[in-house]
Amino acid sequence: MAVKKSSNPMIKHYWPRYRRKAVILTIAMQFILTAFVGGAIIIAGFDSTSFEFWIVLLAIIAASLGLNVFLILSLLTPLRDLTAALTHVAGEPSTVIPPNPNAPYFEKDGFKPLLQYLYASAASAGEVTDTKGEAPTEALSRALNQTSAGIVVLDAEGAIIYANKKAPISTEMDGKIKLDLLFARENEFETWVANCRANAVHAEKTWQRVADKIVGEEGRRIFDIAATYEKGSAAEVVLVALDQTTSYQPEDDELDFIAFAAHELRGPITVIRGYLDVLAMEASDNITPDQDELLKRLVVSSNRLSGYINNILNASRFDRRHLRVHLAEDTLAGVYETINDDMQLRASSQNRLLTVSIPDDLPPIAADRSSLSEVMGNLIDNAIKYSNEGGTIKVMAVQDGSYVKMLVEDHGIGMPSSVIGNLFHKFYRSHRSRETVGGTGIGLYISKAIVESHGGTIGVKSIEGEGSIFTFTVPTYESVKDKLQANDFTNTGLINNGSGWIKNHSMYKG
Amino acid sequence: MAIRSILCIEDDRFIGEMYVRSLRREGYDVDWMVDGSDGLVAARNKVYDLILLDIMLPEKRGSEILHALRGNGKNLIPNTKIIVMTNFDQDVESRLAMEHDVDAYLIKAEITPRKLLEIVAKLQ
Prior knowledge:
The complex is a heterodimer. Chain A is an alpha+beta fold.
């Protein structure tokens, strides 16, 4: 069987084909009807051989053929006009003039609204396909403003060219529109865009838990962000912000409340730690080794409690952009020394062996002694928590270019790589640690914040079942000295945080 | 000049007694005032080697006492050292300003009596 060659079917071909069919059918029908009439006349007794008979029959055929063809063609006129209109709307090449809806006869027979609707809907549909991203149509813009997601479009100059109603933006005094998003590091988004411009054709990135205002401000919203970059597009960067306030806000409120409560705990914890210290000084000669061990456990526990309180307070300060580190020339060994007694006591009272080897010849670092010692305390405390009785925890340090790196190694339960990506997120706790070990999911979050505010990085390598090595780096004093002196020894220049980081009001009374 | 006499201005009875007890045991001569007004009067009437100053105090806040003693560019007590001891989380600017005028600024929750003794011993 031969394959029929078919060109693209066109609307304008329908009308002549259908008209031909209708006319042929009409004529055929006419012949059949006439044959019936003729047959009936012959049966009735007319002489079928007479000349008059055939004349009359032919006259009937001719007259009704003409009338019926005329009738069918006029009945099909609307179909002809519709096809012509559709041919025009579809943009097919055609010599037929499209029907004019304003013609008087269309008005008369009521075909006008039909044509008008056809032309109007074709015109509005055409607008969508014709726009090339310049401006959304009214319908589309209404839809975009209706969605609960914030959508922001940036052009190649980084200017915001479109933002829908829910977009986290604000207009500055000079009329410039800017993104209202507080990423974990200032300028994080801008840095990503700049990197894409330099190195990518297409890129995507997501961020979780990005707020538009600091904790405690009215109408704060928290988003999950997805951004796409497309080089050369008029809409170079498209940012979609999904409002997740309802799922994230309760945790932040909780932390806020706990921070408030934690501040109240500082008084009692001062007294408990202080009197334990007084007892240790005054009663050391009169107690048995047993009792001494009990006293040590009290000291260890109250110190840990104090550490957790500090974590919560620091996390809360960080979220409010209050956390400021005051960097001074120091040594890693010097910082560690301030917590060594506490850490050794903590390890030994929980049957872990803590070995520390920090070389003497490491260069000085730029550090805020109390915050950095809290980072060390958190990492060692974790190593104790996630290792087994009798296990060894190794603290080491090396120079790494213009950084000094500290490593805390345990041979404990370790973790799968799937966990590591989320480890430093706020409130994150791995499924297993939820079941087996206590904690708030705050320690690593605030440790990361503190290390990064020193201008360093924090990370982990882990093998499930074999243990983990947590590392962090801080810059050598020499490498950041000039920046620090220019910024009055705050971390301002190091983390490039610009203005607005510190708000001038106190958060707690009492 | 070794430190001998200490004025402790602290309204919390437990905390005050804790410091006073361990300082006296170490041989220091300690006076203890529990409100800000009495504290300022005591600081003006007698020359101490060291003042331990709380911030949140009844009658007069620690910052006011500090201002009265060392504000406006004059120093009424040039031979006295001052250590601010607080659990109050004040804003960074006030804290930095205070740190500038005193010899140490300590968070009470982070300091045990033994650490305080070490710090005082180093303040020569």
